[in-house]
Amino acid sequence: MTRIVDVARRAGVSTATVSRVLNGKSVRPALAAAVHDAVAELGYTPDRTARSLRRRHSETVALVLPDVENPFFTAVARGVEDAALAAGYSVVLCNTDDRADKEDLYLTVADVENMAGVVLAPADAHPAIDRLVERGRSVVVIDRRVAHDVDQVTFDNRALGHRAATALLDRGFRRIACVTGPATTSTAVDRAEGWRAALHDAGLAADDDLLVHANFRVDGGYDAIGTLLGRSPAPDAVVATNNLAGVGVLRALADRHGGPVPAPAGDGPDGPGLGVGVIGDLPFATSRTSDVALVPLNPRGLGTTAARLLLERIAGSDAPARHLVQEIGDGTDAVAPARPA
Amino acid sequence: MTRIVDVARRAGVSTATVSRVLNGKSVRPALAAAVHDAVAELGYTPDRTARSLRRRHSETVALVLPDVENPFFTAVARGVEDAALAAGYSVVLCNTDDRADKEDLYLTVADVENMAGVVLAPADAHPAIDRLVERGRSVVVIDRRVAHDVDQVTFDNRALGHRAATALLDRGFRRIACVTGPATTSTAVDRAEGWRAALHDAGLAADDDLLVHANFRVDGGYDAIGTLLGRSPAPDAVVATNNLAGVGVLRALADRHGGPVPAPAGDGPDGPGLGVGVIGDLPFATSRTSDVALVPLNPRGLGTTAARLLLERIAGSDAPARHLVQEIGDGTDAVAPARPA
DNA sequence: TTGCACGCTGTAATCGATTACTGGCAGGCT
DNA sequence: AGCCTGCCAGTAATCGATTACAGCGTGCAA
After folding, report:
1. CA distance linking residue B83 with residue B93, whole number of Å
2. Does CATH place domain B157-295 in 3.40.50.970?
3. Within an 8 Å CB–CB cutoff, is residue B112 touching chain A?
4. DSSP-derived secondary structure letter, B191
5. B256 in contact with chain A, both atoms CB, cutoff 8 A
6. May I ask the CATH architecture of the domain B56-142+299-337?
7. How many CB atoms lie within 10 A of CB A262?
8. What share of chain B has pLDDT > 90, as a percent?
């Protein structure tokens, strides 16, 4: 292992000078050149651990997610990883299973490991990030809004719900149900609100019968179809407000009578078909998705945006906390400042 | 930040004693108790960075994967994470996109970051792990076999291929094609070999026409169906040797005539249906999977097994390199030693 | 009683990079 | 000439935990 002293000796300078050259402080050109030569000859890379000890923070960021097995979050992870890596940071991945206690654990780990920062998709509306923030660690919250005064990046969830419902309205459906997540998550609530607003805008009632608070997993969507088909009158279409609920809905329909229908007229042989709208992407769909009204998201963009904010904080920005809205149009990753609440 | 000296002062002992208590060396019980009290009162946690500097390796393991967006690998990641976390290690995730250059980069990062070890699903048969091994870092290779003398955990891929083909034979199919991955990966080759053997065992010819070397992604499976339907005589069923190729196959069939058929008799309205067998799981399938002959895997078990081996190495085991075969029966994570090659 | 061995504890060195502080030198000003 | 300023480079302190080494006390044997 070559150390900084080896480089210093070889270049005929002090370790301080080597350090300065490597960190871009001003040094006489001749010495800088000698240092660079020595570094190249010895193949020297600074020891990250020693550097972290001295600098009091590491070059690692934590990405704390409810569920890495959800393709939405894996895409987020890719985005974070891309941006972080380009800046020389590594990403450690942490799964909370949507449980506050595991989340706390990981946030503590991030703290005692002196990680440079945390990107957090919180399990509930009150993540334990205050201590981290007080200690000067950078934190960016994504996907779900929280009341804390930290940087946040979310989608315009109300607009997403509105758009999904409108797409089904445009296809001619009239009695449109909504399968959303727990009422405790802002994402679930906001998307459902958008759905409701779209129905109102179309002059239709958003019957409470038609709103199901399930969970954001496959089984939630699956079971919700059972519930909804028991309503009378039954809906003629359903909006699933996230990808996994959408998978569950589609699988339930496939198990019953062959899948979603593109328009109200298209009754299948096994009963009246349901139209389906899904907020999110279905990268592993095993059926035709052209009959589904998809409102694609841009989770990877969400990840890169969050990482960018985080890196700015790590670099020392002390601007007031920002709340960005991740744009989704056509997979670009443009970002708009949040509407004033 | 409370440091070890604070604890030492409070307990009225030296830092050496505190360290020894915390690391389980023998210390007079009275002092140990005092240290424990002080630790509890101050809420002390040792600084991992400082510890890593001194111990010359960190408490982090790298998990280097071709593609975290593939549900198979995310499940592997969960397994590794569970086991590593239980042992107090963090996991950093690295995406190689199946490219050797990115893989090299990450392996180098793992080295210069003094990571305790690496779990690697290699992009090709010759990962650059020799330098890591020489430097005494622990390495476990998973999923694909390599010629290096390191611990490896794989599935019995030949048996998997055999089983998938046999399942289709049992359903009455006779002209069974195979869509597998690049001929450069042992996994793709072995599974195809199993497919071929099953046909031979049934007294059928494994026509070269029916073996497609695609890639292990969705588009590979999708396009392969186009190729196979152009053969004459066309196959009556197809084995996809990994999950994503399976997704592609199913989606291609859905786009053409409504999906897989459970048996050769079941011609659909839009043409002769194909039977489908898939090695792997389809957690995000949006169609009925009961018509698909699934050979489920146990990627999470693969991950925990690999992590277990890795942790043993990190703890200092210098047993000869092991090659384990991950069992898949019923989702358990039992492990058998490899058959002698 | 003296000597030796053993076991526990404390002091201080160590891991490797960063950086506060000090000192030297050059150039400009009075 | 004498003084001050500013720039640059080197020395050494520093981050916090671990551990080699030394010292001390106890107990046993001669």
Report:
1. 15
2. no
3. yes
4. H
5. no
6. 3-Layer(aba) Sandwich (3.40)
7. 16
8. 72
